[in-house]
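My hope is that you will study the protein record below before we discuss the fold together.
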Amino acid sequence: MTDSNKMIINLALFGLTQSGKSSAGNILLGSTDFHSSFAPGSVTKDCSLGRSSHLHGFMRRAGQEVTLQVQVLDTPGCPHSRLSEDHVKQVVKEALARHFGQQGLHLALLVQRADVPLCGEAASSPVCMIQELLGQAWKNYTAILFTHAEKIEEAGFNEDEYLHGASDTLLTLLSSIQHRYIFQYKKGTSLNEQRIKILARLMEFIRENCYQVLTFK
């Protein structure tokens, strides 16, 4: 918060290669700051910070309209097709300290494709990195963003049915983070409508945390 009528929320994206991190970041920002494309390997090699334009009157707090600005840190996929896991962790650690060291991080978003089960050692790599970089409080500052959620509908499921049939790994993770999750659909609504809906849900999580942040050294 810079003043009573403006709020900046800081988010960091984590996830597997080709999970849709950069695309999700662009939706959150309402821009095309992050390069996003299909590729046989990892696309993102460095951390990059994007800032949204101001969303005037996005919410009300203490009876006053609040202008919202979003800052999103995009990170390389973990595991990465070209970079070692230790290198990726070090790069992300330095970026968190550089961009959110004093302002603090409101939420780490684990970006997970809805059509790819969360199971196996490789799938747990982003979760382990979040745990290592955020420390003991990681459970209070992590949410899951399911991308490609339209695949759920195409398969004939609703969101509750999807989660009911999810892997034990995913169910355990959801329980650990107090069931903070969001589904991102690619069709049915405009990008701006998606953005507003996702940001509103994120603000619910942030309010539940009493607007607290994690700082980094």
About this structure: The beta strands are 6-15, 48-51, 55-61, 64-74, 107-113, 142-147, 181-183. The first helix runs from residue 21 to 29. The CA atoms of residues 14 and 24 lie 11 Å apart. The chain has a mean pLDDT of 89.
